[in-house]
Write a structure and sequence with these properties.
The chain is of the alpha+beta class. It is built from 24 helices and 14 strands. The chain has helices at about 1-25, 30-35, 40-60, 65-90, 190-210, 215-220, 255-265, 275-290, 300-305, 310, 325-330, 340-350, 355-375, 405-420, 425-445, 450-460, 465-485, 495-525, 530-550, 555-570, 590-620, 625-660, 670-680, 695-720; strands spanning about 90-95, 105-110, 115-130, 135-145, 150-155, 160-165, 165-175, 180-185, 265-270, 270-275, 320, 335, 380-385, 385-390. The strands form 4 sheets. The chain has an 8-stranded antiparallel beta sheet. The protein is globular and about 90 Å long. The chain starts with a helix and ends in a 7-residue tail after the last helix. About 40% of the residues are buried. GO terms for molecular function: heme binding.
């Protein structure tokens, strides 16, 4: 009865958490905060779950290993810390203005004024920018705390908090005039310490679980049935690079040498200084959905539109994905000419012009217009005082700018146009070199190093992963079928097939390693801050895990292909290679990288478990022994997956506490990560839940449970929203 009561409460908690995320989408965050997350009934449910779980643990204590005891004790300590925070902790906001009287109180989450035992005054507020750009790097408030006769100065920035007498101050926002700062205030003298102690105990417990020689995980690893099965398939290095079809006719553009020179010029784009090659690739992908056109490089495509507009406006290269948009515009086929769109606008306006697909098409045509008028090309730096600005040839310039410099900015591209018309490419190369020297001299220290520029040029010209993703999926499916035949004894297969498949994994791993390292080096931060980057990292994790375990685990090679192929394909659902941009200030914490690495490693392992479950279900009826063997593999993978997810959740909680003043905010993605963790953790309790001892049920559970991962990563982003919806 105690066991049924405990797991019944857990099921009820999962239902409440799931319902809360749906209600938040319908009724809004304040509604669920007041009626669910902040309600006494919700706290009581957690309390009952903790107490009943502890009682059940005591009932089974003679059969429980010390590491398991420590793990559950850590969870109880974490819940105790959360309970203490709920009882005694306070959250609020503090608005300070320059040259105003010091604040004696702050406003709590209920809108009531709460007094300080001291006063707080704002001395200064500054926005720091990335060098040579207008992208914010940090927001910095300097405050003075006066406590009787004592005065203390503190600096508050993103990921840098101020502490005094149990109060913690966090940078939240600022006034538009720059003369005021808004701080988050947290007063939780006991709860955070208890919770952090629980986090530390949890990490120790998970490490003990994985290293305990008499524990379940190590016993599963020693299972003799895991040895001796290898798998087959093949992939070639050339498949990673998109093949270019030969074309008999191409529109006019610059020769490769001069187009590459144009691409090596720098431009202010996406709030950073980068090679114009980056804009050229984004421009080409935006218009056509591909990184090249008729065998021309992105730099040649951009140069063609810039210098040969009359010819290029007749090219059917502008992709209109929406069928409804094509119908409304009267355009036949998926690709349209610029002249087609201009005619469609004249004939079909205003009917249907608010359609989303039409709006997207209009953005593409406006992008062409911005390029051809020159306003898109902010390639000319100039300084006003200590501030570096970038301008295009049509932008207004300061009146006090030296005449020679303003003439150079306004006339250089006109001269370039004349040289292109005359086909004087030797002189054109000299002008490009002169513009490059001007950029470097004027930008000074803000100009990117040669190493970063070359790295970005290499990154732009590397083949990207759409072709590789499709081939990985095809090879993975074929290898999966071949592996199943080997498992049930129909065929052993030649050794060279396995070697070719392993070589493909090595090539794919090296390719993704190179692109991730290049992207991180260019961006100056770990490439883990967007959906594209995290899914590319997941593909890299899948191939890395495959290389580690290919000799030991059944089906690991086809699973590696399938997981990495799906991850690469999903990463390109939006844009095939979204732009590299400066990090938002709150994302500059090193804990971001640790948090994302742990969570994406967990999701990768859970994807392996899901595919393992599909194989187990396929074999369970006619080949029960092999299905049981795959159950052992699934249980082994679940341990590091569940532990990595737990560690990722709690590292994220520490990061949130440092950045926002609270370690848990009941954001939809936080809630669904918790739901995912609790659901998969149930599979680690076969002694208490006998159903998980049955291979068919275990495999079916692993397949269905992966829906939680999909909802956590994609459902929250596209359906539920929240502050995590960017990743």
């Amino acid at each position: 009865m105690l066991k049924r009561f405990t797991f019944g409460l857990l099921a009820l908690m999962l239902g409440v958490l799931t319902s809360a995320t749906v209600l938040e989408k319908i009724q809004g965050t304040p509604f669920v905060t007041r009626h669910i997350y902040g309600s006494p009934a919700f706290v009581l449910l957690w309390l009952l779950l903790a107490l009943s779980g502890f009682a059940y643990l005591m009932r089974r204590s003679p059969t429980i290993r010390p590491a398991t005891w420590l793990l559950h004790l850590a969870l109880l300590v974490i819940l105790s810390g959360a309970f203490v925070t709920w009882l005694t902790g306070q959250q609020g906001t503090l608005h300070l203005r320059l040259d105003e009287e010091p604040a004696h109180s702050y406003r709590d989450s209920g809108g009531e004024e709460q007094p300080f035992p001291f006063t707080v005054a704002l001395e200064s507020f500054d926005i720091e920018y990335y060098p040579g750009t207008r992208a914010p790097l940090d927001f910095v408030s300097r405050i003075t705390i006066t406590d009787g006769s004592q005065t203390r100065c503190e600096t508050i920035a993103m990921n840098h908090i101020a502490r005094y007498r149990g109060y913690r101050f966090y940078q939240s926002s600022y006034d538009s005039d720059g003369a005021g700062s808004r701080l988050s205030v947290s007063h939780d003298p006991w709860g955070i310490g208890i919770t952090y102690t629980g986090y530390l105990l949890l990490l120790m417990a998970m490490a003990a679980q994985l290293t305990d020689r008499q524990g379940t995980f190590r016993r599963l690893l020693r299972n003799h049935t895991l040895r001796g099965i290898s798998l087959g398939g093949a992939i070639l290095l050339a498949t990673l690079l998109p093949a270019q079809a030969a074309e008999t006719r191409v529109p006019p553009t610059l020769p490769h040498e001069q187009a590459d020179q144009l691409g090596r010029l720098c431009i202010y784009y996406n709030q950073r200084i980068c090679p114009l090659s980056t804009l050229a690739r984004d421009f080409t992908v935006k218009l056509s959905g591909k990184s090249s056109y008729r065998g021309l490089s992105p730099e040649q495509v951009l140069a063609g539109w810039l210098f040969y507009y009359d010819e290029w406006k007749q090219e059917p290269m502008i992709r209109i994905k929406s069928r409804e948009a094509r119908r409304l515009l009267g355009i036949e086929g998926q690709y349209a000419r610029l002249t087609d769109f201009n005619r469609a606008v004249r004939e079909y306006r205003p009917e249907g012009m608010n359609d989303r697909g039409v709006t997207e098409a209009n953005e593409k045509f406006n992008l062409v217009a911005m390029l051809c008028t020159g306003s898109l090309l902010q390639i000319f730096p100039y300084r006003q005082g200590d501030t570096l600005h970038w301008a295009s040839q049509v932008d207004p310039l300061p009146h006090d700018l030296p005449r020679e410099q303003s003439t150079f900015i306004q006339q250089s591209m006109n001269y370039v146009n004349e040289l292109v018309a005359q086909r004087d490419y030797a002189c054109l190369s000299q002008v490009f070199d002169k513009i490059a020297r001007y950029q470097r001299q004027t930008a000074g220290e803000a100009f990117p190093t040669n190493g970063r520029l070359q790295a970005e040029l290499l990154y732009n010209h590397l083949g990207h992963s759409l072709v590789a993703a499709i081939l990985f999926l095809v090879v993975g499916a074929l290898a999966f079928a071949h592996a199943c035949r080997r498992i049930i004894g129909y065929s052993s297969g030649p050794r060279w097939i396995h070697q070719l498949l392993l070589a493909g994994v090595i090539i794919g791993f090296a390719y993704l390693s190179a692109t991730l390292l290049l992207r991180g080096y260019i961006a100056r931060h770990w490439p883990l801050a967007s959906g594209f980057e995290t899914m590319q990292f997941m593909a890299w994790c899948a191939l890395g895990i495959t290389l580690i375990g290919h000799r030991r685990f059944i089906l690991i090679l086809p699973f590696g292909y399938l997981v990495s192929g799906l991850a690469m394909l999903v990463s390109m659902m939006g844009e095939s290679n979204p732009p590299i941009t400066p990090l938002m200030p709150v994302l500059t914490s090193p804990l971001l990288s640790v948090h994302v690495v742990l969570v994406m490693t967990a999701y990768t392992l859970l994807a392996f478990v899901m595919f393992n479950g599909i194989a187990g279900l396929t074999l369970s009826r006619r080949h029960p022994r092999q299905a049981e063997q795959l159950q052992t593999v699934g249980r082994i993978l679940l341990y590091p997956a569940v532990f990595a997810l737990a560690a990722g959740i709690f590292v994220g909680a520490v990061w949130a506490n440092i950045s926002w003043g609270r370690y848990w905010g009941w954001d939809p993605k936080e809630v669904w990560a918790l739901i995912t963790w609790l659901i998969y953790a149930m599979a680690l309790h076969p002694e208490s839940l006998p159903l998980f001892r049955k291979p068919a049920f275990f495999h079916g559970f692993c397949v269905v449970a992966f829906l939680c991962v999909l909802i956590t990563y994609f459902g929250v982003n596209f359906l539920l929203g929240g502050m995590h919806s960017y990743a």
